[in-house]
Amino acid sequence: TPGFVESSCPSRIFWVKLDKLFLQGKFFTLEIVDPSGGTVLLEEKMAARCGYVLSEDVWGNPIFRASVLGCHVANEADELFSLTINIKVSSSPDMRRAATYTYPMYCTYSPWAPREIVCEENYMEVSVKTDVPAISDDDTATWMSALPEVKKVEYQVWQLIFLSPSGRKKIMVSDAAKLGYSFNNTLARVFLRAPYSSNESKLTVANGVSMNTVSSTSMYKQRWLLLLIDTTVSCPIDGTSFSDTAITWTVPNIIPTLVPQGSTFVTQNISVGVDGQRIMQPEQNYILEHNKTHIQITIPIGAPEGRLKSTVANGVHGVIYSISFFLDHIWTDVDWHMTKYTVIKPITTPFLPRIPTVINNTLPEKRTFDVAFGSFLPDVSLVTITIGNVPLSPREAKHHGYNVYEITFPNGTKGFNLEVPFDDPTVLKEYVNRNETKYTLRVNYTLDVGPEKKQYNHPAEVECVVADIELPEAVGYCDKENLYLAVPISALHQYWNLYVGNRPLNQHTVLSDRYLLTTNSTHLVLQVPLFAMGIVYEEVSFQQLKARFDLVLKKANTLETIKTFSVSCNFNSSEFIVCYPNGTVTVSTPMKTIPSIDMGKTKLKDSSCKPKEFNEEKAFFQFHVSTCGTSLKFEGDRLIYENEISYEREILPAWGPPRITRDPDYRLTVLCYYPTKEKLTHTAVVSNQPANGSPPFGYGTVMCLYSVGYRRTRQALNIIAKVSKDESFMEFYEPNMAIVQPALAPMFFEIELKDEEPNVELHLNTCWMTGSSDFNSTSQWNITVD
Ligand SMILES: *[C@@H]1O[C@H](CO)[C@@H](O)[C@H](O)[C@H]1NC(C)=O
Ligand SMILES: *[C@@H]1O[C@H](CO)[C@@H](O)[C@H](O)[C@H]1NC(C)=O
Ligand SMILES: *[C@@H]1O[C@H](CO)[C@@H](O)[C@H](O)[C@H]1NC(C)=O
Ligand SMILES: *[C@@H]1O[C@H](CO)[C@@H](O)[C@H](O)[C@H]1NC(C)=O
Ligand SMILES: *[C@@H]1O[C@H](CO)[C@@H](O)[C@H](O)[C@H]1NC(C)=O
Ligand SMILES: *[C@@H]1O[C@H](CO)[C@@H](O)[C@H](O)[C@H]1NC(C)=O
Ligand SMILES: *[C@@H]1O[C@H](CO)[C@@H](O)[C@H](O)[C@H]1NC(C)=O
Ligand SMILES: *[C@@H]1O[C@H](CO)[C@@H](O)[C@H](O)[C@H]1NC(C)=O
Ligand SMILES: *[C@@H]1O[C@H](CO)[C@@H](O)[C@H](O)[C@H]1NC(C)=O
Ligand SMILES: *[C@@H]1O[C@H](CO)[C@@H](O)[C@H](O)[C@H]1NC(C)=O
């Protein structure tokens, strides 16, 4: 026999399997060899009538099944059956050159149950013993009414009477084939084979399961004998339902059209099998249950007798499970004594999505992404893995130093593991929070899925935030006249900028503020004189001067303050002037005169302003620029407040000559400079930023609304507001011009009070952005408040 053919006789069926590997790339046809020697090409249109099934098993192997009562089967005494097929195999569609393998098969089947029904994929077959009493007592009346017609038929000729929804139909056996039926008798039996959904069939429902039923009586009449045999056949159509994990196949236990006297019905045996092999212990993998009304088989998806295969549908990964089941049900009842009922049922689940998952096994301390992707059936393979934007085959990925490997799980599924170091150039790095880096790995898996090798893509993004950024620590110290801050350079990288207040620490600030910036190989050292810009005087008193200098570490991209480095020292200076931003002025002045003067008698321009404290060597004044006779003048972009400490000679007597002066004259000019321009750096985040990541943008005009002041004072102030193109405040945008700015880009506003009158002051109270030039327009986004 040819090695690529296997056959068996489960129950009463010739079951032939051809090896798909042998037939791969070849063409084949099957021929049926008639016992008389002739051959018939097996064609689809004759299959149902002849009791043949040509299909594939779940593995794709061609399957041929034939009933032992099928066409061209040699039948010896209803016990020994033989059928010969020719398998023609050719490497071209031209079958004339095909190799022919003649394959004879023999099956023995005995004993037969009085009635046997087979529900095949494409036909229903009932065969009954001819010596059984034909019609149930209950139904005799129905059938007797058919007799007047029956009498007219010819002797020795079988006839068929169908009871269909459209009425009774009587045909000669010789006409059965024309209607798609096959009817014949053997030594001791008659059989009827019907296709599903024939004109004479009807759809019925038995215990909730849809059935296709052909009700018929076979009639044989001789002069002395009228034989009427119920050849009704009824088979379930469908009855399967699917969950994510199991198939449920339900068959009615008792089928009323086949068992007229249901009260006498007794199930004798229920057995199941797969691919024609009976399963001896079905409870190992399946659940086989039956009650009075139903037989139910639960098949877990993935049960080994079936086939689970991977596939892709609409870009979704999933599986399809198929299994070819059969059920044998033997029952007894009073009419038929015993019925053997066989259902052959290939079942294929619908597409079951199985979304693979990316599992993040990353251990931050290993500084390597460890990502598992699964789980998959063995019929899935990894073709390409795109790391960053670089598509690599698994082998190429290994060459690049990425650890890519397959893992097999105990349940037989598999996954793909990938390891990529954090420091790999394809890994995105972002500085987040205070001292953390967010590492992001972007991968895109491309898989070949299932026997059809369908392509499946699965992008994934894995992140890991690690506190691996060390914030610099500064060291502060002072000498007699300076404060110092030493910041290690190694830690100062692209993430941060140093600021003095709101001004970035750069050459410009250093020069204009009289700082000294030096670097050695490890540190940046900033020297700040005690009376330079940016110093904060924490305590200014007669006894001491406490000064502080702050250097602010800000995030380069958001200007968020990360850390403030401070140095604070006490100084023993007895000679200083401190002009506070709020207009308070403190002056400590030693007065070394000979002869020494009475410090308590020193005063400011307004002679009622006396020192706050004094001793023999020095006096300490504190006053506000708006008091004590302080004068103001403008000089370039500075305001200069001026006062004078003086000591008036004591003249004795006060009211008349001669004059004797003992004390020397003393005059000390006190000057406070204030910049007329103040730069205010202010950051804020627009809260209604679109979620999809595109930064917000906008445009508008800058208007100066001094109308509040105007309304109150009935006096137009000479105020000019401008938007500068950069922080140098040298070039400005035209007024009322649309300015387009990307998000997070700074804007530079200049508000200038042009009035020369000394008693006019500008307080920039609230500045806001809003959507229109209407003063009351909402919503408003504050730029500065107070
Ligand atoms: C079934 O009935 C239809 C309509 O009456 C008819 O056209 C068709 O030929 C019939 N089929 C068979 C197999 O007799
Ligand atoms: C009935 O069976 C006999 C014997 O097997 C066969 O010769 C005959 O052709 C069959 N008739 C039909 C209509 O199939
Ligand atoms: C049912 O039939 C099977 C197969 O023919 C047989 O192995 C089993 O013993 C039978 N069970 C009963 C309860 O008769
Ligand atoms: C028999 O089993 C079926 C299926 O499990 C169920 O739907 C039905 O209700 C049961 N019938 C009885 C009488 O228990
Ligand atoms: C097989 O095992 C893997 C890993 O434990 C698991 O993710 C998967 O869900 C399992 N698959 C099935 C069908 O049980
Ligand atoms: C993943 O790769 C596929 C095929 O190259 C591509 O169509 C898809 O856009 C990629 N997905 C991502 C998120 O890059
Ligand atoms: C991956 O795992 C790391 C370490 O457990 C964790 O920090 C990180 O948030 C995870 N990332 C994602 C995207 O789940
Ligand atoms: C990062 O900052 C947190 C507190 O914000 C601190 O507990 C941690 O020690 C810092 N880690 C490093 C490496 O500086
Ligand atoms: C650099 O200057 C800092 C601060 O003065 C000092 O601590 C450090 O030792 C100096 N480094 C070298 C290499 O001289
Ligand atoms: C001005 O500021 C100094 C130092 O912060 C403070 O001592 C003083 O009270 C303030 N004066 C006024 C009028 O607020």
Question: What is this entry, summarized?
Answer:
The chain has eight helices and 62 strands.
Task: List its salient traits.
786 residues, mainly beta, Immunoglobulin-like, 7 domains, ten-stranded mixed β-sheet, five-stranded antiparallel β-sheet, binds 2-acetamido-2-deoxy-beta-D-glucopyranose
Question: Mind explaining what this structure looks like?
Answer:
By secondary structure, the protein is mainly beta. The protein has 7 domains: 5-110, Immunoglobulin-like; 123-235, no CATH class; 239-352, Sandwich (Immunoglobulin-like), CATH 2.60.40; 356-466, Immunoglobulin-like; 475-573, Immunoglobulin-like, CATH 2.60.40; 577-675, Zona pellucida, ZP-N domain (Immunoglobulin-like, Sandwich); 677-786, no CATH class. The chain is built from 8 helices and 62 strands. The strands form 15 sheets. Strands 10, 11, 14, 15, 23, 24, 27, 28, 29 and 30 form a 10-stranded mixed β-sheet that branches. A hairpin with a 3-residue loop joins strand 10 and strand 11 (123-129). The protein is rod-shaped. It starts with a strand and ends with a strand. Residues 132-137, 139-156, 683-691, 693-698 and 704-714 have low confidence and may be disordered. One 2-acetamido-2-deoxy-beta-D-glucopyranose is lined by residues 360, 362, 364, 462-465. One 2-acetamido-2-deoxy-beta-D-glucopyranose is lined by residues 269, 271, 278. This is ZP domain-containing protein. Keywords: Disulfide bond. It comes from Pelodiscus sinensis (Chinese softshell turtle).
